[in-house]
Each structure stands twice: as structure tokens, then as C-alpha cells.
Specification:
The complex is a heterodimer of chains A (about 350) and B (about 325). Chain A contains 12 helices and 7 strands. Chain A has about 350 residues and is of the alpha/beta class. Chain B has 2 domains: about 180 residues, 3-Layer(aba) Sandwich (Rossmann fold); about 130 residues, Rossmann fold (3-Layer(aba) Sandwich). Classes of the chains: A alpha/beta (about 350), B alpha/beta (about 325).
């Protein structure tokens, strides 16, 4: 394993991102039960190492498009944790200003492209970002994620076709987490090994243990370096598991208990803690200190967010077009016959 | 003064914008090596290179998706649909990604999606459609449909410079049949959302766009010479934003409205115009609003069938006479 570039600070940072991802979602679960989360809550429990380990291989200036279970990748790219709390509680100051939820935001300064709910599409859009890098002669790289379920969409297949044909600098992390909502992956493709599906595009494919952060990082680093040096796109198949239902409302009663139990023993955070302790990177006390620090930060963030306002109702009509004159007239009315009468 | 065809006007708009602005580029099926299915981009690959004239796989979602991503980076992509019928596989990208991007995230998707629409070329159900109503119910999109060579150039130039997604419907029947004097290199910008009065008249208003403007004009000339009534023709040019003020202004003067479009009637764009005119100018109407459109069937292939499907000049004359006699 080629980890010579990772030092103690990296190991600390990686551990922090892992526990931040999980602890923030635990806070969100409490907020959900308290009625503060608007709509659904989509957890990444069990998949944190795939998101964090892969995104850590990127550099400033690179772009990343997550799926909904890749919040960890966003913190690695510089998203303040409070932004995710605002997003799920639909605050005015959220990245989407209350107009969309989950990870669906685009923040060019951080190189973040938001996905949309029709799956597989962000690969097609990120291709355009990668194309622009090439047109401008910049050695920047794109990374995106999709579950094995999303990889069955036409958009995903078209995105792979375009990335491959144009030899774009893009890395696709295919997260084989076994379940797409209530459908097991063997009902989505007739393959034993999901690397076989990715291999059909003529791209380099590498399979990794998605619950082993350093395995993910190392593969991502190789793929990112290849893309940056003009070697084109590649695919990493991360073998992992969705430990909770599709969203908070999903009791996952359709999942065989022994399957869950088996994967509970492969928890990515426990495994990374073992590496940190065994290889002498951090002590038990050092790990606890990081967790306490994240916990304090989250307490502050939750308190702050709950005092923030939701967007004002009148902002619902704005920002449809660049020219505000093309947005619905103010005040928007359904009762008067004409807009001119409304004025 | 040289005569420029509608097709050449489209080509000139793209070429001139590509020279003016390095961020303008084209991607689509067969646009490079082959020069485009209708030869609109002939010579572009040699002139601008393969990074700005990009041959793609047959993947309309990937074409529009890449355009959106490039637009997020400040580029000005033109995505070509080889026939506008093939926009269907990109529907998700257009209505869910491009149209909603600015509203959801604050980051717009200033892209142009252009392609040949319309019938009359005996091309059958998948090379002849008019798709504006598929998209009319989607806030965030703009749509244009030029009838003249000047507008073909001016609307495309404006669309390329626009910060929002624009669907540009070029009517293939007009490609080589419509021409106009345009100075080489003449910059024409037709603002989106402004209709044009194609013909002045005081007895009846016809609202149309695209190729049907010419059939409406034929009908108006006949009614004028045979009956002495003068029909005003409003060429919308932009379908969205809709220049409702120009329509209402004309209807208030004539008191009668006929809407002519080539797409089928049920759920067609004429319904929206009708509703808005009823809301804004009901008291000025002296007759019911009438629509002349294609039949509510797929576009058929055989000439006998397609002629039956498409609105004809005689249909417009008959509807105009009915309205004028009301």
C-alpha cells in the first residue's frame, strides 16, 4: 500500500471527517424525531469510509459530485458542517436557500456539484466540468459517486460512454452498497462482481473494500493521479453496505438480519480506529479527544441553526430566471384573474 | 447585399459567436467530422478544432448534461439535437437538471439546445415533431422558434448570450426555402421575449410562430385580395417568455383572434395563449378564439397522410373567414 504521503495530521483529519459524518447524522436523527428535519433524512451509516477516503485524494480546484450518502466527501472538500444542518432543516441560510434538500447544492468555490433525485445524472453534468478543464488546459480532476442502483439508469450509461469517448479527467466511485431502496443488487444486474458492469466501458476498474478507508484512499489516489496526468477516466467499485433503510421512514424489515449482523462487524470507523491504534498514529485518549471536539462543535452548530429563520414565503417566487422580471409577479396571486389586476 | 438562407443564418450566428467568444462551443452527434446532418456545421471542425466542435456518442442525456456542467464553469455550450424529436432522451436533463438549477442552487445553466423541428419534409413520426408543449409547463426554460432568416440569426445570437437554458427550435422546412439580405458578419441580436408584427391589419389577429407564419401570411394575402379584410399577423418568435402584451395589444384593436401552430391541438401552446387572452382582453373579443393546428395524431409519413395532418393555408383561410363573419 502506497501511503507514504499520509502523515499523522492526515490520519487525524481522516478520523475527524469519519466521526463528523456519523455524529452529524446522529444529531440529524434526533432533530428528525423532534420534528426539525423537513422531509426525509438519508443516512450514510456504514459507508462513511468510501466517501471520506476517496474525496481525500483530491486537491484544491478539483470538483466533486456526491450522491446522497456521500456527505463525508463534502466535509473533506471544505463544506462547513453547519451547512448540512441548515440544509436538512430548510433554513434560509442553507446552501439551497430552502429550495431543495439533502446534498443537492452546487458551490463552485468548493468545487461541489449537487446531484438531483433522478439518479445517474450528475455523471453527465460533471463530464461537462471535466470537459471544460480539458478545453482550458487545466490539470484539474472530477470525482463522482453512484450506487449500483443508480448505475442502471440510462443517464449513467450515457455518462460513462461520453467520459470514456472523450477521455475526460474523471473518477467514478461505484458504491456497491447492496440495496437500492428495497431492491437487492442481484435484482438490478445479473453479475456476481459489479466490476464487470463498469468494465464494459473500456475503462480501468479497481475493486476495493469500501469499509477500509485506507484501501479506498489508495485506489482513489491512483485514479486521481491517472486522470490528472491525462490518463482519462476510471472506476472504483467500493464494496460496502447500507446499514440503515433508504431513508428514516424505512424500517428495513426486508433485510435479512444475519446480513446486517455480518456487516455490523465490518464497521468502517471501528476498523480505522484499530489501524490508528495498532500502528501508533493515535492513542485511545487521542481518539476520544477528537470525538469530544466534534461533539462540542455540533452542539454549537445545532443550537445556532435552530435559532435561524426559514426562508420568507415571498422568496418562493424568486430566482427562476437570471432576470427577476421573468419570475412570477409580486404579489403572486391565484385568485385574481390577471397579473395586471394583481398589480 | 447577399441572400442568406435560414440555414446559413443559423450557421453564421454560431460561427460569429464562436469567433467573438472563446467560451462558445458545439457538441452533438455528427457535428464535427460529418459537418452536421444538415451540413449546418460544415467546416467548423477544421476552423475551430475538436475541443470546440465535439462529436459525441448517440447519448442525448450526456450531451445536454455535459453542456450544463460546462455552463456551470462559465462556458457557453450549444448542444445540437440531430432532430428535435431526439430531445426526448434528454428530457430529464432539461426539465430536472437545467431548468431547476438556478432556482435550487443559485447557479444557472446558460445553455442552448437547438435542433430541427417540424414537418413537411416527409420524414415520418420521429423526424417531424414540434415539441414546445412538452416543455411549456416547465418554469426556468426559454423557448424560441424563428420564422425568418434574420430572426434565425438574431434569436440564436441572443440565446447563446443568454444566462438561462434556451431551447431553439429551427424549422427544417424553412432551412433552404426562406432567405433574406443579411450583410456578412452583420451582428443581429433579437431579444428573447419580443414578438414581431409580420403583417399589419385591423380586422383579425393571427398569432403564430415558426413555419406556420408563412402559411398564415399566404392565407392573409388571399383573404385580403378575395374578401378585402386585413389580417394582422403576430410572429411570436419567442414562445417563452411569451410577449403577451403584443398579442393583447393587437387583439384589442382587431377584436378577433386565431392561433395557428403546427403541433397537435390537445394541450398545445395555443391553449395557453387562449387562456391568457381571455384573462387579459376578454371584453375586447367580438368572437370566440379559434385554433388551427395539426391533428391529434402522430406525424404520418406518406404525403397524402402528412398533408392531412398539417395545417394548410385553406384551413387558415376558412377559420379566418368564420371569425370575420362572426
Amino acid at each position: 500500500m502506497n501511503l507514504s504521503s499520509l502523515g499523522r495530521d492526515d490520519m487525524r483529519a481522516l478520523y475527524r471527517f469519519l466521526v463528523l459524518t456519523r455524529m452529524l447524522e446522529e444529531r440529524l436523527e434526533i432533530l428528525f424525531k423532534q420534528g426539525h428535519v423537513v422531509g426525509g433524512l438519508y443516512r450514510s451509516l456504514g459507508q462513511e469510509a468510501t466517501a471520506v477516503g476517496s474525496a481525500y485524494a483530491l486537491r484544491e480546484g478539483d470538483w466533486l459530485a456526491p450522491s446522497i450518502r456521500d456527505a463525508g466527501a463534502l466535509y473533506v472538500r471544505g463544506l462547513p458542517p453547519i451547512a448540512m444542518l441548515r440544509q436538512y432543516t430548510a433554513r434560509e441560510a442553507s446552501p439551497c436557500a430552502g429550495k431543495d434538500n439533502t446534498t443537492h447544492f452546487t458551490i463552485p468555490e468548493l468545487g461541489l456539484l449537487g446531484p438531483i433525485s433522478p439518479l445517474g445524472t450528475q455523471l453527465c453534468v460533471l463530464n461537462g466540468v471535466a470537459l471544460t478543464f480539458r478545453q482550458r488546459g487545466e490539470s484539474r480532476v472530477c470525482m463522482t459517486y453512484q450506487g449500483e442502483g443508480a448505475s442502471r439508469t440510462g443517464a449513467s450509461h450515457e455518462g460513462f460512454a461520453m467520459a470514456a469517448a472523450q477521455e475526460l479527467p474523471i473518477v467514478v466511485i461505484l458504491e456497491h452498497n447492496r440495496w437500492s431502496f428495497g431492491t437487492p443488487s442481484y435484482r438490478a444486474a445479473a453479475v456476481e462482481d459489479w466490476a464487470d458492469t463498469a468494465g464494459a466501458y473500456g475503462l480501468p476498474v479497481r475493486s476495493v473494500d469500501g469499509n477500509d478507508l485506507l484501501d479506498v484512499y489508495e485506489a482513489a489516489r491512483e485514479a486521481v493521479d491517472r486522470a490528472r496526468s491525462g490518463g482519462g477516466p476510471s472506476v472504483i467499485v467500493a464494496e460496502t453496505y447500507r446499514m440503515l433503510g433508504h431513508a428514516q421512514h424505512d424500517s428495513q424489515k426486508y433485510i435479512p438480519p444475519e446480513e446486517l449482523e455480518e456487516w455490523r462487524g465490518r464497521d468502517p470507523i471501528r476498523r480505522f480506529e484499530r489501524v490508528l491504534l495498532d500502528d501508533g498514529w493515535l492513542s485511545e485518549a487521542g481518539l476520544a479527544e477528537i470525538r469530544d471536539e466534534v461533539d462540542r462543535e455540533l452542539t454549537q452548530a445545532v443550537d445556532a441553526v435552530l435559532s435561524e429563520p426559514h426562508p420568507p414565503a415571498e422568496s418562493s417566487r424568486t430566482r427562476v430566471y437570471a432576470d427577476p422580471a421573468l419570475d412570477p409577479a409580486e404579489p403572486w396571486t391565484r385568485t385574481l384573474a390577471t397579473e395586471s389586476e394583481a398589480r | 447585399m447577399s441572400e442568406t438562407t435560414y440555414l446559413e443564418a443559423i450557421r453564421d450566428a454560431m460561427r460569429e459567436e464562436m469567433h467573438r467568444d472563446e467560451s462558445v462551443f458545439i457538441l452533438g452527434e455528427d457535428v464535427g467530422l460529418y459537418g452536421g446532418a444538415f451540413k449546418i456545421t460544415e467546416g467548423f471542425l477544421e476552423e475551430f478544432g475538436s475541443d470546440r466542435v465535439i462529436d459525441t456518442p448517440i447519448s442525448e442525456a450526456a450531451i445536454v448534461g455535459a453542456a450544463i456542467g460546462a455552463a456551470h464553469m462559465g462556458m457557453r455550450p450549444i448542444a445540437e439535437m440531430q432532430f428535435i424529436d431526439f430531445i426526448a432522451p434528454a428530457f430529464d436533463m432539461i426539465v430536472n437538471f437545467a431548468a431547476k438549477s438556478r432556482y435550487r442552487t443559485g447557479i444557472g445553466a446558460g445553455i442552448v439546445i437547438r435542433g430541427p423541428c417540424g414537418g413537411g419534409a416527409r420524414s415520418g413520426p420521429f423526424h417531424s415533431q414540434n415539441v414546445e408543449s412538452f416543455f411549456a409547463n416547465v418554469p426556468g426554460l426559454k423557448m424560441v422558434a424563428p420564422a425568418t432568416a434574420r430572426d434565425a440569426k438574431g434569436l440564436l445570437t441572443a440565446a447563446i448570450r443568454d444566462p438561462d437554458p434556451v431551447l431553439y427550435f429551427e424549422h427544417k422546412f424553412l432551412y433552404r426555402r426562406v432567405k433574406e439580405s443579411i450583410e456578412p458578419g452583420e451582428e443581429i441580436v433579437v431579444p428573447l421575449g419580443e414578438a414581431r408584427t409580420h403583417r399589419r391589419g385591423s380586422d383579425l389577429t393571427i398569432v403564430s410562430y415558426g413555419a406556420m407564419v408563412w402559411k398564415a401570411a399566404e392565407a392573409a394575402d388571399r383573404v385580403s385580395s378575395e374578401d378585402g379584410s386585413e389580417i394582422e399577423i403576430i410572429d411570436l418568435r419567442s414562445i417563452r417568455p411569451l410577449d403577451i402584451d403584443s398579442i393583447v395589444d393587437s387583439v384589442r384593436r382587431t377584436g378577433r383572434l386565431l392561433i395557428v401552430h403546427e403541433a397537435p391541438k390537445f394541450g398545445g401552446f395555443a391553449g395557453e395563449i387562449t387562456a391568457q387572452v381571455c384573462e387579459e382582453a376578454f371584453e375586447w373579443l367580438d368572437a370566440p378564439i379559434r385554433r388551427v393546428t395539426a391533428m391529434d395524431t402522430p406525424v404520418p409519413y406518406a404525403p397524402t397522410l402528412e398533408d392531412q395532418y398539417l395545417p394548410q393555408t385553406e384551413d387558415i383561410v376558412a377559420a379566418a373567414r368564420w371569425l370575420l363573419a362572426y
